[in-house]
Amino acid sequence: MANWKENKIIGIVAIVVGILAIAGIVFSFMPKKVSLTLMSESTGQVIKMKVKIGAEFPIVDPATGKTDLYPAMGYKCSNGHEFYVLAKADKGGGLSAMPPRCPVDGTLEVQPIEE
Ligand SMILES: [Zn+2]
Predict the structure, then answer these.
(1) Which of 16-20, 27-31, 42-46, 48-52 shows the lowest mean pLDDT across its residues?
(2) Quick check: 107 and 87 in contact, CB under 8 A?
(3) Are 46 and 99 in the same domain?
(4) In terms of CB atoms within 10 Å, which of 24, 36, 89, 114 comes out highest?
(5) Could you tell me if 24 and 40 lie in one domain?
(6) How far does the centroid of ligand 1 lie from the alpha carbon of residue 76, in Å?
(7) Domain encompassing residue 18
(8) What is the pLDDT of residues 2-18, one digit of tens each?
């Protein structure tokens, strides 16, 4: 009977640890970040990066330190050239309605690349 206080404390600690463990598991399953294809506006470099959901673009490019990373869409033209286009909102807030054009041969026959 001498240890009843100690046992109680151990019991409480065990419950707290258990709750924290469950919270940690639930938290780790929540999608906090998504992997996106991004392109630097200044260098044109395309990178894959995990981005927080709801992040506002542009975001900082870890390679250059510049805040000019935008989501990019990959396209492939009918001649097999692959290129990326910035999915950058214009001042009106909407995405550009311009059809993407292959930068190599100028063809408009392009298909989005499935990620
Ligand atoms: Zn092309």
Answers:
(1) 27-31
(2) no
(3) yes
(4) 36
(5) no
(6) 7
(7) 1-30
(8) 577 888 889 999 999 99
How far apart CA 74 and CA 42 sit, in angstroms, is 18
- Going from the Cα of 51 to the center of ligand 1, the distance in angstroms, rounded, reads 30
pLDDT band at residue 89 using 50, 70 and 90 as cut-offs? low
Let me know whether 23 and 65 are in one domain: no
Rounded Cα–Cα distance for residues 101 and 83 (Å): 9
Number of compact structural domains in the chain: 2
Ligand 1 centre to CA of 86 (Å) is 17
Q: What is the DSSP string of 23-60?
A: HHHHHHHS--EEEEEEEETTT--EEEEEEETTPPSSEE
The protein residues having their C-beta less than 5 angstroms from ligand 1 (an ion) are 77, 79, 81, 102, 104-105
Same domain as 15, residue 26: yes
Is the distance from CB of 70 to CB of 38 less than 8 angstroms?
yes
